[in-house]
Write a structure and sequence with these properties.
By secondary structure, the chain is α+β, with helices and mostly antiparallel strands. The protein contains 21 helices and 15 strands.
Length: 588
């Protein structure tokens, strides 16, 4: 996080890194969308290797496929930056070189100096061609189709150097895009050939081609959602284009899904999810009002993870598209699950940006990320802070993960759990903490702000909420969930007023006591507050503060000398109690 104390050099490097990541994500997203629109195999592959070479800033890039002619050799099909015809038309025995390691492991492989790498399987003719091209470092990323490695996207430099983790990630991403593009091309090529052979049934073939186009559209929606960062909303939009009707998506990896794109499901639909997953077929249900709905389960390694729901009965063609959409949803949720390793860090950074925004306010990227989680300007949301023992906080965070998964913005900030929760999510948390028979969370306190509608007020509300937690802790509040309203009329009053003028009033009324504590290191303010809270009982105050009764009397006398002997008597006692209580919540 960038703060006022961040050194200029760190600030510049962070900004440059963020800009580079934004440009990289944008380039990959734009390219992923563009390449799916190209139906000419050669043009698409040429654009892919050219863009790969540019994005990774390497000397050359090329695609090699495994045994495309049935000969048992790999075959380079497209290149960018290659100088010699021998390298451009290079054929390698399966299992040799970097490509052999990629095919064997199914994961990226690289060598910083090909000629001296003894781990690789070498071929004398291949080594001669590589040496003539001047190639030193090679990186290969697998292209997988239906679980098998069909080839690799490779990049190379004419100097010896290890490729960076960022370059490996980009190569993997582009290899996945290349696989989808090639599969789509082959699918369209196959359909076109079939259409030519069966001209007598042109009408049927056209419908089949349209179905495959719709299936391809479903595949593209997955690419858009992952490469473009659009999330569940982008995925649903793409599926609606593919299916041609309103679509609802269900993520069953969480109990409560706060995303706007998530569907609301009824008790009548839940059993059909499991049945669809078990049979592998779509299921129909009649909803209230007599409307029919079709459900197709999304699974991951045989486990039910979600479902796609559409209104109305479906045709055979619709069923094929619906099945593909369910498969795509399963892949998306699987990718979402893999991202959770990074999620804690990204959630923490996002919350920190909201708590300490830059001078110009939150940028559009942050606002977009918040919107995806249901937190938008003009719609109510709340700040939650959980404070307590480490074990209780760990259990509470696990409960949030179990209930909300990736759909609730929360993270550990220092020794607290901080969350920004839409009103619907807050209602779930409130029910979890306050319903009859709810779990007892020990000494843990969860403070919540009032409903907020603007991001600009979050830093002040966060600071105030920490004061509320501190006051609740000092007063041994018996409930887990606390807020300003926990402190009765004074809390209700403070939740409706402007804080700064109220602080000035506190200073005017009890300022001498505050200043005395500041100057002498005493605890007069806290003693006076507890004294008034206990109904002006010296003995109760002594027990609460773990001091002798004479100590309490001496402190009370000192407060009287500063504020006047009648500060805790007559009509002034109410004024004093209000001001000391307000100071506990919002004082400096």
């Amino acid at each position: 996080m960038i703060t006022a104390d961040t050194p200029p050099a760190d600030y510049d490097s962070l900004v440059e890194w963020a800009r580079r990541q934004q440009r990289l994500t944008s380039s990959i997203s734009e390219f992923a969308i563009a390449i799916t629109a190209i139906r000419d195999d050669s043009a698409a592959l040429q654009q892919l290797v050219a863009r790969t070479r540019s994005l990774l800033d390497v000397d050359m890039a090329y695609i090699s496929l495994n045994g495309t002619d049935g000969s048992g050799f790999t075959h380079i099909v497209e290149t960018a930056g290659v100088r010699t015809d021998a390298y451009r038309t290079l054929r390698m025995p399966l299992g040799a070189g970097v490509l052999g390691r990629v095919a064997e492991s199914g994961s990226p492989a690289q060598t910083s100096d090909y000629a001296s790498d003894t781990v690789l399987t070498h071929d004398s003719e291949v080594d001669r061609v590589v040496e003539a091209e001047g190639v030193k470092a090679i990186l290969g990323a697998p292209m997988k189709s239906r679980g098998k490695v069909i080839g690799a996207l490779l990049v190379a430099n004419r100097f010896a150097k290890k490729f960076t983790d960022e370059q490996v990630f980009i190569a993997e991403t582009l290899a996945n895009i290349a696989t989808v593009a090639i599969d789509n091309m082959h699918r369209v090529d196959s359909l076109t050939a079939s259409l030519s052979e069966l001209r007598g049934s042109a009408s049927d073939r056209e419908r089949e081609l349209e179905t495959q186009r719709r299936i391809t559209s479903a595949d593209e929606s997955l690419m858009d959602a992952i490469a473009g960062g659009g999330g569940l909303a982008s995925l649903r939009s793409g599926m609606e284009r593919a299916i041609g009707r309103e679509t609802q998506l269900v993520d069953m990896t969480v109990r409560f899904d706060m995303r706007e794109a998530a569907a609301e499901i009824g008790d009548s639909e839940r059993p059909l999810f499991a049945l669809s997953a078990k049979t592998g077929d779509p299921m129909s249900v009649m909803r209230e009002g007599g409307t029919e709905q079709t459900i197709m389960a999304a699974t991951r390694r045989g486990e039910l993870v979600g479902a796609v729901m559409v209104d109305g009965a479906i045709s055979d063609s619709d069923e094929l598209v619906l099945r593909r959409c369910a498969h795509v949803l399963g892949v998306f949720l699987s990718a979402q699950d893999r991202e959770r390793g990074d999620l804690a860090r990204r959630r923490k950074e996002l919350i920190q940006q909201v708590l300490s925004p830059p001078p110009g306010g939150l940028d559009v990227t942050v606002v977009t990320q918040l919107s995806e989680l249901g937190i938008t300007t003009g719609h109510p949301y709340r700040i939650l802070i959980a404070d307590g023992a480490e074990s209780s906080l760990r259990d509470f965070q696990h409960r949030l993960e179990l209930n909300f998964g990736v759909t609730l913005l929360h993270a550990q900030i220092g020794e607290q759990i901080v969350a920004l929760a839409p009103e619907a999510a807050f209602a779930r948390v409130q029910a979890e903490l306050e319903s009859r028979g709810a779990r007892h969370w020990g000494s843990m306190l969860v403070g919540h702000s009032p409903a907020l509608h603007m991001f600009e007020v979050v830093p002040d509300e966060f600071a105030l909420l920490n004061r509320v937690l501190e006051a609740a802790r000092r007063s041994n509040h018996p409930r887990t969930l606390v807020s300003l309203l926990t402190f009765g009329a004074i809390g209700a009053f403070l939740s409706k007023v402007t804080i700064e003028p109220t602080r000035l009033a506190i200073q005017d009324f009890i300022g001498p006591v505050i200043e005395y504590d500041r100057t002498h290191g005493t605890a007069l303010v806290n003693t006076a507050t507890v004294f008034l809270d206990s109904g002006r009982s010296v003995s109760e105050t002594a027990r609460t503060m773990h001091v002798h009764e004479n100590t309490v009397r001496q402190r009370i006398d000192r407060v009287g000398s500063l504020l006047g002997d009648d500060w805790a008597a007559g009509h002034r006692v109410l004024d004093s109690h209000i001001m000391f209580a307000a100071n506990r919540l919002i004082g400096d």
